[in-house]
Write a structure and sequence with these properties.
Strand order of the largest sheet: 4-3-2-1-5
CATH architecture of the largest domain: 3-Layer(aba) Sandwich
Number of domains: 3
Distance between the termini: 36 Å
Strand content: 15-25%
CATH class of the largest domain: Alpha Beta
Length: about 325
């Protein structure tokens, strides 16, 4: 059970502090003795403790780890991801779902390895981004139905809002011996394109998403069973990069281990300033990702003296 550390709370007139199991999350209430209240378990009973927003901290597994530990875990997961992509290229992995925050390099890494394999003639590869209708997804699966075909669906989360698309995706991601894909609705478009209403899918699908499937399953919404079904059918890898802190650790990795900023003509001094500025504004940035670094680098190239003013005017939420 999640723990909460209370620095200053009130239970009737009694002062409460310490670490307790969290029963119910914080509720903002202006009639409370403080800003709001939370429910904790004390002596095997649930009690309501009045607290302000800054009077408590939720203790998560992440908060107990050092940045170095988080960094190592992320590096390990990216290594696993590259190994799984090698498995796709070698045709030992049929289906894969990659989950992680946007702009952390997951799509770039996958695309780079697959493009190299395509040039070497090992696979036939195509990446689909943006939005996709159910019949459009069926057509893409038809076009990539053979062994050695790799279809990457990159950030097409609109699929989850359509029952037909979900069923098609479940069929394509299945790890069974045979994967049968069907389109039972009448379609003159498919007939004109010479596409059958049912076929055996032997290709490979990689689904790249910003969504945390484990979190979506735990929420218990109407979509939760679909997320669970997809996870059960495919190799699912959560890259462990969802929170602001994890994203910053990943950005530091990229800056430290690549020559990205140097290649853009950004000096070591300015690179350090970029990282310091991002860290101090990470909670108020409209977007926090590797792309943010590239934007800040362009501001420095535009105006080395006033780049921070430009960044604050264009990137900070008001």
């Amino acid at each position: 059970m999640t723990q909460v550390e209370i620095k200053s709370g009130l239970f009737y007139s009694q002062e409460i502090n310490g670490s307790f199991p969290l029963a119910k999350e914080y509720v903002n209430c202006h009639t409370s003795k403080k800003d709001g209240y939370i429910w904790i378990i004390r002596d095997s009973k649930q009690i309501k403790v009045h607290v302000g927003r800054n009077d408590f901290n939720i203790i998560t597994a992440e908060s107990l780890k050092s940045d170095a530990e988080i960094s190592q875990e992320i590096e390990d997961r990216f290594t696993v991801m590259e190994t799984l992509v090698d498995g796709v290229i070698n045709r030992t992995i049929k289906t894969m779902i990659l989950s992680g925050a946007p702009g952390i390099g997951k799509s770039f890494t996958v695309d780079e390895k697959l493009m190299k394999a395509k040039r070497e003639g090992k696979i036939r590869f195509n990446c689909l981004t943006g939005s996709c209708t159910p019949i459009g997804l069926y057509l893409q699966l038809w076009n990539h139905q053979n062994e050695g075909d790799v279809l990457v669906l990159d950030d097409i989360d609109s699929i989850f809002n359509d029952q037909e698309s979900l069923n098609l995706l479940k069929g394509a991601l299945d790890t069974g011996r045979t994967r049968q894909i069907s389109w039972m609705s009448a379609s003159s478009f498919l007939r004109e394109e010479g596409v059958d209403n049912t076929f055996e899918f032997k290709g490979t699908v990689i689904f790249i998403t910003n969504m945390n499937f484990d979190e979506m399953i735990e929420k218990g919404t109407k979509l939760s069973p679909h997320f669970a079904a997809l996870v059960n059918r495919a190799v699912y890898l959560d890259l462990g990069i969802h929170s602001t802190r994890e994203i910053m650790v990943r950005i530091n990795q990229v800056v430290r281990n690549t020559t990205m900023l140097e290649d853009l003509g950004v000096s070591k001094m300015h690179a350090d300033e970029i990282m310091d500025w991002m860290d101090s504004h990470k909670e108020t940035l409209r977007s926090l990702s590797i792309r943010t670094i590239l934007q800040l680098a362009s501001f420095i190239k535009t105006s080395p003296r006033s780049w921070k003013m430009i960044a604050e005017a264009t990137m900070i939420k008001r």
